[in-house]
Amino acid sequence: MVNFPSLNRRSGEPARIGVFDSGVGGLTVLKELYRQLPDESILYFGDTARLPYGDRSPAEILQFVREILTWMEEEGVKMVIMACNTSSALALEIVQSEFSFPILGLILPAARAAVKGGCRIGVIATPSTAASNAYQQAILEVDSTAQVWQAGCPEFVPLVEQNRIYDPYTRSVASEYLAPLIDQKIDTLIYGCTHYPHLAPVIQAILPEGVNLVDPSVHLAAATARELDLMGLRSDVSALSTQFYVSGNPRQFSQRSAQWLGYAPKVDKIRLPELQPRRSTYFESVD
Hints:
Elements: E1 17-21, H1 27-36, E2 42-46, H2 58-74, E3 79-82, H3 85-96, E4 103-104, H4 107-117, E5 120-125, H5 127-132, H6 134-142, E6 147-152, H7 156-161, H8 168-183, E7 188-192, H9 200-206, E8 212-214, H10 216-230, E9 242-246, H11 250-261, E10 267-269, H12 281-286
Parallel strand pairs: 1-2, 1-3, 2-9, 3-4, 5-6, 5-7, 7-8, 9-10
Helix pairs in contact: 1-10, 2-3, 4-6, 4-10
């Protein structure tokens, strides 16, 4: 049996949940954790020096994820949430077998929610996530009769990170990305990147009425609560706190976070551990 940590090795305080994304997109997951798990303390990391992840190779993503998880392991987290669909699609199953703590991703909880809402399902995602077909595979595993269409949206993450949500150009790009899905008469749309719910006002204005929107953050937070209860890791101390770290510019991240968190958090910059790249058998078969 694996012995999961119950205390932060460095501070002696109750262990935190680690959450990571390439930038501010993971704040959609963080806000859901606040809502559904108000007593948990959280360690949030934004890999802002290397965003966007959506056009990275699978080998690069796996290397980034290993570095982040190694650092979080040193921090004594009790669980890690990949608040990044690209990482969930390309690295989750590999690193789950490499680290001793539970690691949860976005795709399966979202797929289960999507098939409850419809059978003609659209997915908007980063190019890497779309190319992986991870959402399509997960949806069809849950319901083999569902039909799935995917659209890679390479400009969405940079537009969100640049706070250009209400820019007319963003509306134009969104219309272009959504048009093929609308033509297929989708009844459900999955936000296949945690940055995309920030674009909800734009996306909802373009989609026909009645399209069911699935935010994976909501369902991942619920899955996290169930996992904590199952493993006896739920915090019994009412002391919610979050520490924010980034690999890039902390001031810039803090300023961009303020509109979604309601305050400008204190953010520190860290240097991730430098790991020697390991060759995965998964990627050997892809090369």
